[in-house]
Amino acid sequence: MPVSGYVFAEENKNNCPGPWHTVCGGQNRRPWMALADDGTLWVRPKLAPETLRAGGMPAPENLRTGGVPAPETLRAGGVPAPESPGACLAGSESWQPVHFNENYAGYYEPCYFTALACTSKDFVVAGLGKDGLPYVFRSLYGGVWDQINLTGGNPVSGWVRASGRIQGILYDHVTDQLFLYCDNGQLVTLPDCPKCVRIRQVADQAIVSGAVSQDHLALKLMDGTELKVGMGDVMQLRISYSYAKKCLSAGGVVVWLGQDMPEPELDKLTGALPERLNMENLRNWLGLQPKDMFIAFWCDFGTQADEAAACARRMGYTKAFSLGGARPALHVV
Prior knowledge:
Layout: E1 20-25, E2 32-36, E3 41-44, E4 96-97, H1 100-103, E5 111-118, E6 123-129, E7 134-139, E8 146-147, E9 151-154, E10 158-161, E11 166-172, E12 177-182, E13 186-190, E14 198-201, E15 207-212, E16 216-221, E17 226-230, H2 231-234, H3 241-248, E18 253-256, H4 263-266, E19 275-276, H5 282-286, E20 295-299, H6 303-314, E21 320-325
Parallel strand pairs: 18-19, 18-20, 20-21
Antiparallel strand pairs: 1-2, 2-3, 3-4, 5-6, 6-7, 7-8, 9-10, 11-12, 12-13, 13-14, 15-16, 16-17
């Protein structure tokens, strides 16, 4: 359904940013990026000195924690309230607009941007297209943007596209995964593997804010209810065969936990014989492996592979994944 109620300005004609919805970035020689309340993106190589505190970070009043608007600035549905526009940073003349809709006209859907965040390596922005669907893009420095897949599912239960307006983006540096919370109660997980997006309906109303805790996501709903969703329930440890093959080219191991190994499936991985392992010996085997090694668990139906990957993550193996099941329709190629 087409979007109404939003102004899809090609650019801010006054070249004057703010008030800000979100400001992030600045680490590792990266520029700062900002999302303005009018849905436009802005970039700045360096903040003016008067906006900085000791250490070169923006003063707290100029930022939204984790890229999430403060609750008091939100109206129903999680949209920033006009009377509480957020902080404007000094020296606005050095901010430059990111001419996204103009530069990508005819290539990407024109977007009114609704959320911005940065990870340890790039910027992530979410927007609402004129077709009423959400879109997500990633960029290393804010110049060139790549569209990200928002369709999740599997061959058994089918595939579905994220459909809610993305209210905010949470980044977990431990799992290196992104969690998008939406106005229709959807929670979308963007994992390492681009083919393995996970979409869950966690609420029957808008999610208006959120934060990453040690073992869960703390979400706030439109009616004020606080919802805790376990990290184990939202992490996506499944990866496709093609993603595993790419990772294994730089080193790592496939671990088979099932019965008789399906020989034809080996060609879809590395062609090398995976290591065989019983679940009973999993912890002992993991204790002998480097914590940063890429490990892809694999079994007949996917259940043991998922359990093994989750166990390895709890033990600190940050590159442990599940290939799912070798049986037909139980994995993604």
